[in-house]
Amino acid sequence: MDNTEYNLKETIESISNGDQAAFRELYDIYKQKIFSICYSILRDSHLAEEAVQDSFIKIYNKISSYDKTKNFESWISRIAVNSSLDIQRRVKRNRKILMQEHEMNSIFYSSDSSHDKLDKVWDVLDKIPSEYRIPLILRDIQGLSGEEAAQALNVKHETLRWRLHKARQLFKDIWGQT
């Protein structure tokens, strides 16, 4: 067992016992990863921040039920995906709240041509149903391994592979039409 694994287990145990400082440490370590997942799904920094808050509330409330035989990052990734999807559903039900793209320029763009290409990528992703889009985002954009993405989505690895295949096929077809 390496030192990082031991410290994570110790931190989880401390949080389970109500240690606020340990939870703050966990938050500081994982907040960017959770934000990145939420932002990739919601594509709005304010909504992503809301999803991050929801995610960490759920993590705090459910950490004592975390199965230590499972990958912790996959577990928190799944919570982030679920929180993001909950917010996405709420936004779709309430059309008064418009999702906007902003702050991407400073994060992802280096030139106008890459800006146009990135806009096209997101436009294509928007047209792919979420059951295929989210695995594609987790695997190809967020860089999770196939096993991690499958665990985060609570599906079998074979199901993830099929969804990725379908998502990539849809992406290619839609990309060719634009």
Label this structure with key terms.
single chain; 178 residues; mainly alpha; Rna Polymerase Sigma Factor, Chain: A; Arc Repressor Mutant, subunit A; 2 domains; 78% helix
Short description:
The chain has 178 residues and is mainly alpha-helical. The protein has 9 helices and no strands.
Beta-strand content bin: under 5%
Overall average pLDDT:
83
Q: Which structural class do the helices and strands define?
A: mainly alpha
CATH superfamily of the largest domain: RNA polymerase sigma factor, region 2, helix turn helix motif
Spatial extent as radius of gyration: 17 Å
The rough form would be described as globular
Distance between the termini: 50 Å
Provide the CATH topology of the largest domain.
Rna Polymerase Sigma Factor, Chain: A
Unreliable stretches, pLDDT < 50, 5 or more residues? 95-112
Q: Major beta sheet, specifics?
A: none
Task: Report the count of strand segments.
Answer: 0
CATH architecture descriptor of the largest domain = Orthogonal Bundle
Number of helices: 9
Tell me the name of the CATH class of the largest domain: Mainly Alpha
Number of domains: 2
